Structures are given as C-alpha cells and as structure tokens.
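tl;dr need the bound structure. longer version: we got a ligand (adenosine-5'-triphosphate) that a collaborator sent over and nobodys looked at where it sits. i said id run it. heres the input, straight from their email, havent touched it
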Amino acid sequence: MNKPFRIAVLPGDGIGNDVTSAAVEVLRAVESRLGGERYETREFSVGAEEYLRSGDPLPEATFKEIEAYDAILLGAMGLPGVRWPDGVEMTPQLDLRERLDLYCGLRPVYLYHENDSPLRNKAAGSIDLLLIRESTEGLFFTRKQKLQPGAGYAEDTLRITEHGAERVIRSGFRAAQSRRKKLTLVDKANVLPSMAYFRSVFDRIAPEYPDIETERVYVDAAALFLLRRPESFDVLVTENMFGDILSDLAAGLVGGMGIAPSADIGDKYAVFQPAHGSAPDIAGKGIANPAATILSAAMMLEWRGDADSRKGAEAIHRAVRQVFSDPKARTPDMGGKLTTREMTDLIIGALSL
Ligand code: ATP
C-alpha cells in the first residue's frame, strides 16, 4: 500500500465547514471501501474568521505547515463585512494560488440531468467541458496595488508572460489529449496586445500536438457560443479574469455553483475547492450543496494518480452521476429539498468500488 496521502483541510468560512466535512466523509467512505488507512487529514484555520481571531487570515506559521502537506482541500473563504482596514476583501485562497504557484485552474462542467440546465433540450452528458483558467497572472496581476488617492484614474495590468502562457496552454493540450481531443483558445487578440501575445504562444505550441483539433475564439464570442453550442466544447484555455467569468457562466449551464468543482494545480502543490464562495446567506442552515466539494475531492484523488486513488475518484464520479440521475435528489440551490446531510448520505450510499 502507498504511504498515507496527507491532506490539509481548510474549511474556511460560511458553508465551507459543512461542505468540507461532507467531502472528508466521502473520502473516509472511499478509504474504508478500499481498505486500510490512506487519507490523513488535518484541519487548519484560514479565512475571515481566522482574521477576526488572530489579525491574519493566513498566518505565516499555518502557511508553512500547510506547505508540507501533499494536497489542500479548501471550503470557502470570506465573510461580508470582514475586510482589510482599507475596505478590500481578504482573499487568502487567491494568496495561496499565487504563493504556491498554482497556475492551472481546472473548472470541469458536466450536465447530470436535463432539468438542471436553463437551456432547452440538453441531454445529460451533452455538456461536458473543462475550462482551464490561468491563475497566477493575467488581469489579476496587479490586484494588490493601491489606488492613488486623487489621481483621477485607476488601472489594472493584464500581464501575460511567455512562461505563464506556455505552461497553462500545454496543460490545456495535455488535458485535451486525455479527453475528446479538442482545445479552444479564448482570448481578445483582436484588441489587446497581451492577448495577441497569448495567442502567438498558443500558435507556436499547437503544432507539437497534431492529434488535437484547435479553435480560437474571442472571449465575447465564447460567452455566446457557450450558450448556443456548449456541446461543441471540450477543453478551453484562457487568462485569469476571462476564466473567472466564463467558469461561472459555464457552471450556470449545468445547475450553478453548488455543482461546480475546481482544482488549482501547480508543478508541486495543488488546492481543491468548490467554485462557490462562503454563501453567508445560507450558512448554518444545513442546506449547502456539498456536491461541488465532493467532486473537488474526486479531482484530488485523480491528481494523486495512483491506481487506487483513481479508482476512488471514478467511484465518486459514478456515485454523483447515479444520485443526480434522479432529478428530485437536489438541494435547494438546484430546486430540491435535500439537506447537506441527506445529499452526502445519498452519495456515500451510492459509492461502489
Ligand atoms: P465569492 O465572491 O466568494 O465567489 P459570492 O458571494 O459571489 O462569493 P457565493 O458565496 O458562491 O457567491 O454565493 C452565491 C449564491 O449562491 C448565494 O445565494 C449562495 O447561497 C449560493 N450558493 C453558493 N454555493 C452554494 C452551495 N454549495 N449550496 C447552496 N447554495 C450555494
């Protein structure tokens, strides 16, 4: 048996605690079905609540401890009204992405049942795409700069480096190779020089992957095409901000944020978390949809990559597919009545390895 997989669990704020404990329960169920102790988990306090406690949402000592783990499972961070003294929202989850150099943001989007899509006539499985968001530069690059009081303007820099573009674009090609072999570049190369540069890196790399069909679309057209022909997409790769926006749009096509998992991957570290935030409006009510976090935990097992973990990941995907094939099995965010507890139990009950 492999040595235990050490997972730092960062529940964070709001519904973060409910959804990470659901995901850890699913991991425990996978572990017991596989036999033997495999997943060592330890919780760390990071986020707005931690800021209220210690004055730092991501204390340095905690960061150092987390760094020593194999992977990070994160809930959600941030609370309304808890801000830095200058009014800026605290985003330790973005700090983690930058400090751990997690450049590849994977946002898979899958339609489990036709009732979940606001689009007409979309069969289960017809929307099945992977949006890859560059997560260390792009239009988030200068997000920490301070406004110049009285300057009469504010600006952000969209930075694309050759290194940053190349590594995320290669991730896109590799992901396409393991899926339906199509990669769509989303940019704004007709207007922004940074995006023309992004496209030039894509064009230079593309011939190295002759098995992959490529497509290049401007971000505005991508928004339209995601609504008009979502089934035509396999893997999409784009810069940070475009990816931020389009991943919410794409999640909306299949039932919303409660079902949208994500992974932020670097060469050494990786963080797995739901695409949603801390949902303070439903925190403490026991009705948060745990599916996104459970699916993120499956991505974590897939990323670990050994045969048993891959088996565990597939089992979670099958279980979620089975549960969601019944359109009544939904939490309130997706029009149903199930609690977090009931949804978690259904998924665990459907796990077969
Ligand atoms: P952030 O800026 O951190 O992404 P946000 O305020 O934009 O956060 P969310 O916290 O994701 O957004 O919440 C948006 C809406 O979606 C809220 O009404 C929330 O209740 C709902 N929501 C988000 N995640 C879930 C979930 N897992 N289960 C149920 N409802 C959810």
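gonna send this back to them w/ a short note. Residues 15, 19, 78, 257-258, 276-279, 281-282, 288-289, 292, 331, 333 surround adenosine-5'-triphosphate (CB under 6 Å).
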